[in-house]
Amino acid sequence: MSRIHSCPCFFRLCKGCGGSIRFLSPPLFWSLDVQPPQWGPRGGLLQPGGNSTPPLRRSRSLGLGAGRGLGAGRGLGAGRGLGARRAVATSLRRKNMAGTAGPGTVPGAAGGDGDDSLYPIAVLIDELRNEDVQLRLNSIKKLSTIALALGVERTRTELLPFLTDTIYDEDEVLLALAEQLGNFTGLVGGPDFAHCLLPPLESLATVEETVVRDKAVESLRQISQEHTPNALEAHFVPLVKRLASGDWFTSRTSACGLFSVCYPRASDAVRAEIRQHFRSLCSDDTPMVRRAAASKLGEFAKVLELDSVKSEIVPLFTNLASDEQDSVRLLAVEACVSIAQLLSQEDLEALVMPTLRQAAEDKSWRVRYMVADKFSELQKAVGPKITLNDLIPAFQNLLKDCEAEVRAAAAHKVKELCENLPTEGRETIIMSQILPYIKELVSDTNQHVKSALASVIMGLSTILGKENTIEHLLPLFLAQLKDECPEVRLNIISNLDCVNEVIGIRQLSQSLLPAIVELAEDAKWRVRLAIIEYMPLLAGQLGVEFFDEKLNSLCMAWLVDHVYAIREAATNNLMKLVQKFGTEWAQNTIVPRVLVMANDPNYLHRMTTLFCINALSEACGQEITTKHMLPVVLKMAGDQVANVRFNVAKSLQKIGPVLNTDALREEVKPVLQKLGQDEDVDVKYFAQEAISVVAQRLRKPDFPAKDSEEPSAPGADKNRFLRARGPEEDPGKVQRESAARAASEEAVEMARFRGTDVAKGPAYQLHVNPRDTLAQLEIADLVHFSQSRD
C-alpha cells in the first residue's frame, strides 16, 4: 500500500484566489511500502505477489508539475481542471477502484491497472527528495530509463515540467541533469520537439555554479543543431535573448556561448539582433560577463560575415584588449588569433597589429604571458611579413621580460618560432636576432626558465646545421648539463638524439659524454636514475664497441648502488642492453660480472645477483641460464641470510619456465624441498609457492574441453544449461569427472614433489587447492548443476 505525503512547501492563497493551493515545489511525493518495482517479461511491472502488470500506457497522466501539473489539466484529474486536493482524491479513488472499475470510469484511467503506471515516477520523485545526495544523483542518471517508460508524450508534458520546477539541488545533481538533458532529443519525440528541452536547460544555465552553467550551455549548443531553422528562430533565439538580457550575470555569461551556434541559420533581421545583444554583453558592467564575451569573441567572429568582422568585431576586440580588468585583456589576446585568420595582410596591419603590440607590452604580466603562450598561433595567423617586422621584436622583449613566468613561456616557444620562420634567411635571423637572447637565458636566475629552454634548445641543432651547432650550441648544451638544477640536466639528456643526428656520435662523445659520466655519478639519486633510463638509447647510438669502452663499467657500478631504485633500474637496464646487443655479448661481457657478485659480502649485492638472473634468464635463453646461472642460484640456497634464501625460491620459480624438465626434476626439485623445510617462515612460504608452480610445469595437465566448446549437434537444445535436467540427462558429467580426476592426480603429484606421504587414502588424494584452476572449474560446475537440479 502506498502512502501520499503532503509536501510542506506550499501555502494557501486568501481572498480573491478562491482558497486554492499554490506550490513552491512538487506538491507530493510517493514513499512506497512495497519492494522497489521490477520489470516483468513484457515490459510490465511486477507486483509484490509476483503478478506482472501491463506495460505503461502513454495515455495516462501523472501529476508531476509544480503548480502547473495537478491543477492545469495535466494532473491526475486531467480534463477537469481539478485543484490539488481534488487531484489527490482522484488518485486515491483510482487506487481503490483498481480491478473493479471499467474503462472510462475515471478520466485518464484504463481499467484495473490505472495506478500501477505511477510506480516508476513515484520512485524517481521519492529519490529526488531523499536526503542522500547519492540517491538523488542516481535517480537523475536514470532519467532516460524513466523517459522510455513514460513515452515521449508524457515525458514532454509531465517529466520535463517537473524537472524544470525542481532545479534546486546540489551542484553534482544539477550537473548530471544538465548532461542528461543534452541527449534527451530522441526521448521527447525527435527534432520536432527538441524545443521542449529548452526550459529546464535555460534554468540550469542561470545557476550560480560555473560547472553546471557550462554543462547546460554545452547541452544547449548540442540541441540547437537539431532545431530546424524555423524552430530555431521560434524557440532557441528567444531563449538566447532572455539569457542575454537577464538580471543576473550568470544568465548573461551563459548567453555568450550560444550566439555562435544560432547565428549562421538565422535570418538577416534576427542576425542583426544577435549582433546587438553580443555588443551589449561586451560592454557589460560586470567583469565576469565581459570575460565570457571576450572568451567567445573569436568563435563568434568565425561565423560572421567579413564586413561585420571589420565593422563590429574588431572594435569590440580593441575595447576588450584595453579593458580595465587584466583578466578580460588576456582573453582578448586569445580571440586575436581567430580574428587575424579572417583578415587580409593590409587589414591586419591597420586594425589588429596596433592592439597586439600594445598587449605584448601590457602592464600586467598575465597579459604578456598570454601573448607569449599564444605566440606560435599568432605567428601562423599573421604571416611571415608581419612576423619579421613586428613579432620578432616583440618576442625579444618577452625573452628578457622582468617576470620569470613570461620568460619561461617565451622560452618554450623558441623552437616553434624558429621552425615557422620562412626557410629563406631563417638561419641568419636565428643567429642574429634569437640566439643572443637564448645565451642570456642559459644563465638565467630562475630554474623554471632554464628548464623550459633546455627542453627545446636541442631541437635548434636540426635547424642550424652541424657547423653552427658545434660552434654555438654545444657550449650552451655543456653549460646546461652542468647546471645545478636537476630538471635542466634531465631535459638536455632526454633530447640528445636530436644532436646526435646532426653532429655524429664521435663529436657527441667527445663533447658531451664526459658530462654524462659526471651526471651518472651525481650525488642526487634521481639524476642517476634518469641517466640509467636513457642508457639503452645512448647504447644504441654509440654501438657495442664504444659502449664497452666508455659506459659498460658504469652500468655495472650501478648494480651496487646504495639506493634500491638505482639497483632495480640498473637490472632492467641490463636486460634492455642484452636485447639490443644479443646473447653472445651478454655471455661474454655481462653474465660473468653479474655472477661474481654472488660471493659479495654484502647480502644486498647477493640479492641483486638474483634479480639480475631473473631479468636476464628470458633474454639469454635456456642454454646460458641452465649452464651458467642455475648453478649459482642453487648454490645461494644455502646462504646464511633468510632474505637471500627466499629470493632463491622466487628466482627458481621465475626461471622455471626457461629450464627444461630434467633440470627442474634433478636440480631444482631437491633444493626447493630443502627450502620448504627451512626454519624461516618466509622461506618456507615462498618455497611452497615455487613448488606449486614447478610441479605444474613438470606435469603439464591437459585441460578438458569446456561444455560451451562442445560442437552442437543439429537440432540440439542450445538452452540446455538454462533448464533443470533429469537424472540421465547430464552432458557435462564426463568433463566434471575428468576435471576431478585431474585435480586429484595433481594433488598426489604435489605431495610426492614435496616429499610427503601419499598413502593417506582417498580423502587425502581428493583434497585439492581451491585456488587451482581445475578445482575452480569443478567447484563452479558442481554448484551450477546442483542448483539446476534443485
Fraction of residues in β-strands: under 5%
Strands, count: 6
Class per helix and strand makeup: mainly alpha
N-C termini distance: 34 Å
Keywords: Repeat
Protein name: TOG domain-containing protein
Family: Belongs to the phosphatase 2A regulatory subunit A family.
Domain TOG: 341-572
Overview of the structural elements:
Helices cover 64% and strands 3% of the residues. Strand 5 (38-39) and strand 6 form a beta hairpin. The model is unreliable at 1-114, 701-729 and 756-790 (pLDDT under 50).
Quick structural overview:
The protein has 790 residues and is mainly α. It is built from 42 helices and 6 strands.
List its traits.
790 residues, 3% strand
Helices and strands, with pairings:
Elements: E1 2-6, E2 10-12, E3 21-23, E4 28-32, E5 38-39, E6 45-46, H1 84-97, H2 119-128, H3 133-141, H4 143-150, H5 152-164, H6 171-181, H7 198-204, H8 210-224, H9 229-244, H10 249-256, H11 259-262, H12 268-282, H13 287-295, H14 297-302, H15 306-321, H16 326-340, H17 345-360, H18 365-373, H19 375-382, H20 384-399, H21 404-412, H22 414-420, H23 426-442, H24 447-457, H25 461-481, H26 486-493, H27 496-503, H28 505-511, H29 513-520, H30 525-542, H31 544-550, H32 552-558, H33 564-581, H34 583-596, H35 603-620, H36 622-635, H37 642-655, H38 661-675, H39 681-699, H40 733-754, H41 761-765, H42 773-789
Antiparallel strand pairs: 1-4, 2-3, 5-6
Helix pairs in contact: 2-3, 3-6, 4-5, 5-7, 6-8, 7-8, 9-10, 9-12, 10-13, 13-16, 15-16, 15-17, 16-17, 16-18, 16-19, 17-20, 18-21, 19-20, 21-24, 23-25, 24-26, 25-27, 26-30, 27-28, 30-31, 30-33, 33-34, 33-35, 34-35, 35-36, 35-37, 36-37, 37-39, 38-39, 39-40, 40-42
Family: Belongs to the phosphatase 2A regulatory subunit A family.
InterPro entries: 2AA_helical, ARM-like, ARM-type_fold, HEAT, HEAT_type_2, PP2A/SF3B1-like_HEAT, PP2A_Regulatory_Subunit_A, TOG
Keywords: Repeat
